Amino acid sequence: MELVCRNVSFSYFRKSPVITDFSHVFRPGITILKGYSGSGKTTLLKLLAGYLSVTQGEITTPTGRKVTSRRYHRSDVSYMFQGINLLPLMSVERNLRLAAEMAMLPASQWKPRVEQLLTDLGLQELRHRRADKLSGGQAQRAALARTFMKDAPTVLLDEPTSGLDDSNTDIIKKLIMQNAAGHICIISTHDSRLLELADEIIDFDSPVSC
Description:
The protein is of the alpha/beta class. It has one domain (3-203): Rossmann fold (3-Layer(aba) Sandwich), CATH 3.40.50. 33% of the residues lie in helices and 21% in strands. It contains six helices and eight strands. It has a five-stranded parallel sheet, sandwiched between helices. A three-stranded antiparallel sheet has the order 2-1-4, covered by helices on one side. Strand 1 and strand 2 (19-26) form a beta hairpin. Helix 3 (92-102) packs antiparallel against helix 4, helix 3 runs parallel beside helix 5 and helix 5 runs parallel beside helix 6 (166-180).
């Protein structure tokens, strides 16, 4: 199982390229993208998710589906946005269920997964609380739980521990480790606390990386 970038370049609105001639093979395990703001980490995640289209080059997915296809978005990739992006008027549990329903998972599969993720992230007592009533750390944990709901082969996490204390970060690190096995997990982060999770680190501060 591989997610492959071949000579990928991207620029916004005909400006200077954010990513230039990037080639890499992502395999199962945890890959950390590190580097300064504006170096292209989040842009690369969005290209891998199919939210942006490459200016040049190509991306080959593990299933062979195009990154822009509806089936790829629904089943093959799961993305955690830096801004969390939970549905604010829905409960924690409903946010998780909706992720499963959109991926067309059968209830027999997603119901026990909801329970497991709520337990692992210490969110059981908050399952019926609206997302807009959660603290920052609680919302970050709920967003991660939603990301792991559909068990997609490719998982993309954009700053999953941004602004969190050590306690919440430890919970999130544990869940990432538990769910990354057998998946391609790519994390964009400034947080040095996550580096110990990495099977591979790509440094976007290095001209060789991008």
